[in-house]
Amino acid sequence: MKNLYTISETAKILSISSQTLRKYSNADLVKPQAINPETGYRYYSFEQFHIIDRIKYLRQLGMSLNDIKAILTSDNLDLLKEQLKKRKLDLQHEIKVLQDEIDDVKWYMKYFSYLDMVRLPNVPYIRYFPERYILVIDYQSEKTECENDTIERVETKIIRLKNQKNYAYRRQWGYLVDTPDYLSNQFVPKKYFIFLKHKPQDWHSEYMAIIPEGLYLCLWCPKKDQISAEMVHTFYESHPVVSDSLALEYENSLQNYKSCPYEYQTFIEKVDGQ
Predict the structure, then answer these.
(1) 3-class DSSP state of 90
(2) What confidence tens digit (pLDDT) does each residue in 240-258 have?
(3) 4-75 architecture in CATH?
(4) Mean pLDDT throughout 13-38?
(5) What is the pTM of this model?
(6) DSSP string, 14-65
(7) CATH level 2 (architecture), domain 122-269
(8) Distance from C-alpha of 134 to C-alpha of 243, rounded to nearest angstrom
């Protein structure tokens, strides 16, 4: 049996770099079994392979060198299990963060891809939506003679509100409009809002609202004030009219967002079993 292995041999057998072995040595994790005083060559024993391999897999699990040193020095399995449990929780949190990012990417892919769908002009269609949450500001109380100034005021206020609590949001702006005005082809905004990603724990009814789950009668308009809702009006001749409708922007330019198309959405009914 070979008693000692050079650092190069050890590195090759354990699929690890010589530099990493030196790093472990400098961190007092595993010192060479022997060092030639004349050449400075480092040698490791077969028994040390198990320690090096253990360090290697603990590093692969994401443990720090300091944590590994504490575990090996104490030779305490309970400490190892405690660190493994902590690492599991850290990984679960990382997975959640990554899943949230995936959800965001999927949402924005769907949002921008929605522009590619073929729609007949002025022809209503029905869409299902789950329950949605909005951060909302009264538009009329902030209204000025200049529409751009009003939008600047309400948007700035909403941005401040969401940043104060770091609310997760979806970047889609919209208006709550009076449905009878909308059915008369008039754009009369009552409130201005942005969608929140989920319902905040510190729900504040003054600035937050829930858009109910259900079926919505929708109409695509080239601009928010270019409405031709005659066919929608026909639908409501035999259905009760709700007081408010949504007017949601769909950005078709990353520069000129002021002339983007809008989808009007008016609640029809709740859907059982969704």
Answers:
(1) helix
(2) 889 999 999 998 888 877 7
(3) Orthogonal Bundle (1.10)
(4) 94
(5) 0.77
(6) TT--HHHHHHHHHTTS---SEE-TTT--EEEEHHHHHHHHHHHHHHHTT--H
(7) Alpha-Beta Barrel (3.20)
(8) 18
